[in-house]
C-alpha cells in the first residue's frame, strides 16, 4: 500500500502546480513524497474501515467537481472541507513523525518540573493526539470533529495535534504535503471504493516515522464494478 501511495505522490510532485513549484528541489520533493505516502496509506486504511466517512468524501468530491468529471482542478480543493478534516483526523491518530524534539535555549518549569537549558525535550504527538482531555472519543476516527460547525461540541484542542510542528522550525513542506494528500484522497475515492483486505486491525510500530506493524492490504473496487487488490 505504501509503495502505491509513494508512486502516486511522486507523480503529483513531477506535475507540480503553482502551489508546489516553490518546493520542487529534488531532495525536498523526495522527503515530501515519503511523508505523503505514509500519511496517505493510513488515510486509505481508515476510510476502508469507515464506509460512512468514505461516502462523505465521495459526495463532497462530486459536489466540488461535478458527477462524471474525471479531473480535479486545484481550485476545487477549497470546496472540500471534509477531505481536509479526514487528513487532520488521520494525522491526529497516526502522526507521520511520532515525536517533536527541541533543545531548550533557557531554563523552564513544566508542571512543577524544572528543566535546565540545553536539555533535549521530546513531545509525543501520538500521545497528545489521543489525550481524552483534548479530544472526545480520542481513539475513534471522527473527521467531523474538525469541521467548523462541530467545534463547540467536539472537545477539540488544536494545540494537542501538531503533526507538522509549530513555529519557525515547523515543516517547510506542510502545504505541499497537504495538497498532495487532498489530491490523492479525492482522486482515489472518486474512482474507487475502498474496503479492507484483511479482517484484523493493523497495529503501529514507532520508528523515526509511524509505520504499520504489518502491511496494509486494501481492495479497490472501481466505480465500474471490477475489484483490484492492493497491498501485501
UniProtKB/TrEMBL annotation:
Q: What is its EC number?
A: 1.14.15.6
Q: Which cofactors does it use?
A: heme
Per UniProt, where does heme bind?
Answer: 171
Membrane-related topology note: Peripheral membrane protein
GO BP, one example? cortisol metabolic process
Q: Which GO terms describe its molecular function?
A: cholesterol monooxygenase (side-chain-cleaving) activity; heme binding; iron ion binding
Broad class of where this protein is predominantly found: mitochondrion
Determine the domain of life of the protein's source: Eukaryota
PROSITE patterns in alphabetical order:
CYTOCHROME_P450
Pfam families linked: p450
Start and end residues of each stretch annotated as Disordered = 1-27
What keyword terms does UniProt attach to this protein? Cholesterol metabolism, Heme, Iron, Lipid metabolism, Membrane, Metal-binding, Mitochondrion, Mitochondrion inner membrane, Monooxygenase, Oxidoreductase, Steroid metabolism, Steroidogenesis, Sterol metabolism, Transit peptide
Q: Name one GO cellular component term.
A: mitochondrial inner membrane
Q: In which pathway does it act?
A: Lipid metabolism; C21-steroid hormone metabolism
Q: Where in the cell is it found?
A: Mitochondrion inner membrane
**Family membership noted in the UniProt record:** Belongs to the cytochrome P450 family.
Q: What is this protein called?
A: Cholesterol side-chain cleavage enzyme, mitochondrial
Amino acid at each position: 500500500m505504501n509503495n502505491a501511495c509513494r508512486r502516486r505522490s511522486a507523480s503529483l510532485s513531477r506535475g507540480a502546480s503553482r502551489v508546489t513549484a516553490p518546493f520542487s528541489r529534488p531532495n525536498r520533493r523526495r522527503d515530501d513524497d515519503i511523508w505523503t505516502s505514509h500519511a496517505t496509506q493510513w488515510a486509505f486504511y481508515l476510510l476502508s474501515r469507515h464506509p460512512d466517512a468514505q461516502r462523505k468524501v465521495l459526495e463532497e468530491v462530486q459536489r466540488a467537481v461535478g458527477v462524471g468529471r474525471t479531473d480535479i482542478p486545484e481550485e476545487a480543493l477549497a470546496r472540500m472541507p471534509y477531505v481536509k478534516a479526514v487528513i487532520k483526523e488521520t494525522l491526529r491518530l497516526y502522526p507521520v513523525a511520532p515525536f517533536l524534539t527541541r533543545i531548550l535555549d533557557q531554563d523552564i518549569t513544566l508542571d512543577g518540573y524544572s528543566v535546565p537549558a540545553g536539555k533535549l525535550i521530546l513531545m509525543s504527538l501520538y500521545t497528545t493526539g489521543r489525550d481524552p482531555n483534548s479530544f472526545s472519543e480520542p481513539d475513534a476516527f471522527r473527521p467531523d470533529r474538525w469541521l467548523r460547525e462541530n467545534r463547540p461540541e467536539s472537545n477539540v484542542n488544536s494545540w494537542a495535534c501538531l503533526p507538522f510542528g509549530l513555529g519557525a522550525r515547523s515543516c517547510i513542506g506542510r502545504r505541499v504535503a497537504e495538497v498532495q494528500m487532498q489530491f490523492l484522497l479525492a482522486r482515489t475515492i472518486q474512482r474507487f471504493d475502498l474496503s479492507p483486505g484483511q479482517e484484523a486491525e493493523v497495529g503501529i510500530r514507532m520508528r523515526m516515522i509511524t509505520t504499520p506493524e504489518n502491511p496494509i492490504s486494501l481492495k479497490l473496487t472501481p466505480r465500474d464494478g471490477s475489484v483490484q487488490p492492493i497491498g501485501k
